[in-house]
Amino acid sequence: MFTLFDLLRVLATLMGAAVGGWLGDSLFGMAGSILGALVGGVSGSFVGALPFFLAARSLRRELQRADSASLGRRLQEQYFISHLILAELDARSEDLARFEESILALMQSESSDRRRHGWASLRSFYPARAQALANYDSAASVEACRQQVASLIERPAE
User: Fold this and answer.
1) Rounded Cα gap, residues 63 and 103, in angstroms
2) Which residue has the higher pLDDT, 96 or 134?
3) What is the reported pTM?
């Protein structure tokens, strides 16, 4: 997936290369242009990565400051960061078994996007349960996904 953060990094890299090339050419000619473009591109890439770095750090701090109960509620609302929420809960040594139901609910959702994120979280944090659903496909029909998850729910957790 190509995100806004990726676009910013590409544009900053290109802009850095262009400015570096122009500046290098005006100061040192053709050789300076090539070197300037390389240095400018690398510099631009670092500058372009800053928005992602700052946003990720802000989210990490926000999750660290939240209490466990609110993180549990956020699993359904903010399914797209469920893996980060579970990682934070795991870092706090919380019992992740109590959040398994929320992840299984995501995997039975009408939305294939929710199912995909739920499946990724199940594979990462509940590998034994995920192994029992080796043929699960979040892009399959809602009914097929619900049947597979229902068969998993009927089995006791190992």
Assistant:
1) 18
2) 96
3) 0.83
